[in-house]
Amino acid sequence: MHRSIAFPIQHQPVCPPARGAREAEETGAEPEDPTLTSAIADREERASFETAMLPHLDAAYNLARWMTRNEADAQDVVQEAYLRALRFYQGFAGGNGRGWLLAIVRNTCYTWMQRNRPLEQALLFDENAHFPDCVRANPETELLRRAREESIELCIRELPVEFREIIVMRELEGMSYREIAEAAEVPMGTVMSRLARGRKRLERLVHRALGKAE
Amino acid sequence: MTCDLARPFLEAYIDRELDAPDSLHIEEHLKACNSCSGLQERIEALGSAIRAGAPRYRAPDALRKRIQSDLRSPMHAATLGRKHLFDWRWAAIAASVLVSAIAVWQMPLRPHREQESLIAREIVSSHVRSLMTNHLVDQPSSDQHAVKPWFSGKLDFSPTVKNLDTEGFTLAGGRLDYLDNRPVGAVIYRRRKHILNLFVWPSSQSSDESRHSSTTKGFNTVAWRTDGMQFWAISDLNEHELDLFSRLISQTDKE
């Protein structure tokens, strides 16, 4: 039974209109030297952006690297994402910022993939139909332990990107469900179900890889 | 608690996303249920396999520096950022589609233009190459009496080399190039920051042809034929100045 699920591609992160711009419109106040004032404001904003967002560069790069599976592409995507993020920075509500930034990185990745690798946007199928959830006893745990240094990386690379991104955010970045939900712009329930399905699927891939190796 | 109730929360329990009372309920169930605790072990083993075996990639230093300089450059981030990865590619695709469309449209109508547009393309490539590869001049000199003799012995003709300093075109030197299936002379001039390549070679056609301008890939070109010699001037200069240049060259040439 194939059940196709539309792939959630969001081209732009949610970005409310710039706070500053809105206020300026409402008050209509003219600063004395608009060029100078805006230059200072601009510099302050950039400094604030750098302080808030640059610490998440590794997280941004790691996600992009896993999503694009390519070093050069990941670098391009992250560079672009930071420029986008700066433009939308006034819409940033504060807080840790990692989820907010990763949402932009993720969207930039999808836009990039849509343009460069349209084939990867293939329909998903319900993996439960293909990998029935039979609970087995624990030789598998042993297998997984052995998989550690061998093939886990390759198996993650094989995961469809919407599972891969969630697994990477959860297991490698240690992000909370809430943070992942913010970054992936989906409800927490979706995070939970994708994580569960992704893990199940990854486990199958690991078994398959080990089976072949033997 | 039954398996059906516990399962949906098992992963959240493992990921420490449940509050204390819910965690307790799951823990109790896990103690009692082999099937669920087996699943728990597998999920945990998978998690540690991932963390142990899959790299958390670190951003290269070069990327960090690039982003920092992006963020600190006043123009780049705010206004040009959007174009950085996106628009130019589409623009390039659109441009190439347009160019092909024009090419397809023009070809049957103007077959005699084909040869010339082929040369125009070569001219543009040669001009761009001369700017890109640090191979603008073989013989750098602002003295036409040094550049002109340099060509003799390398070419079977003598290209026009003029001193147009007073008109604002400074001779920069000479270069050998290859166009239209033959070696040609390239004389390089500068005007302000702009580089101008003047290609000269003996034409296969003897009839003169008056100057005609065109624009290819953002470069302006002027081509003409005098006394059996073919001239192509190319630059990113505006067309008026390039036209002035071509008039000066063909004018002084006749004197």
Structural class of chain A: mainly alpha
Order of helices and strands of chain A: HHHHHHHHHHH
What name is given to the CATH topology of the largest domain in chain B? Phosphorylase Kinase, domain 1
Give the helices and strands of chain B as they follow along the chain.
Answer: HHHHHHEHEEEEEEH
* Shape verdict of chain A: elongated
* Radius of gyration of chain B over all CA atoms, rounded: 34 Å
Q: Strand count, sense and closure of the main sheet of chain A?
A: none
Text of the CATH class of the largest domain in chain A: Mainly Alpha
Would you write up a description of this structure?
The complex is a heterodimer of chains A (214) and B (255). Helix content of chain A is 67%, strand content 0%. Chain A is an all-alpha fold and 214 residues long. The longest helix of chain A is centred in the last third of the chain and has 26 residues, at 188-213. Chain A starts with 18 loop residues before the first helix and ends with a helix. The model of chain A is unreliable at 1-31 and 121-137 (pLDDT under 50). Chain B is α+β, with helices and mostly antiparallel strands and 255 residues long. Chain B folds into two domains: 3-53; 112-254, MucB/RseB, C-terminal domain (Phosphorylase Kinase, domain 1). Chain B has a seven-stranded antiparallel sheet with strand order 1-2-3-4-7-6-5, with helices on both faces. In chain B, α1 (3-14) runs parallel beside α3. The longest helix of chain B is centred in the middle third of the chain and has 34 residues, at 76-109. Mean pLDDT of chain B is 82; it is low at 77-86. At the A-B interface, α2, α3, α4, α5 and α7 of A face α1, α3, α4 and α5 of B.
Keywords summarizing the entry:
heterodimer, A: mainly alpha, Rna Polymerase Sigma Factor, Chain: A, Arc Repressor Mutant, subunit A, 2 domains, elongated, B: 255 residues, alpha+beta, Phosphorylase Kinase, domain 1, 8 helices
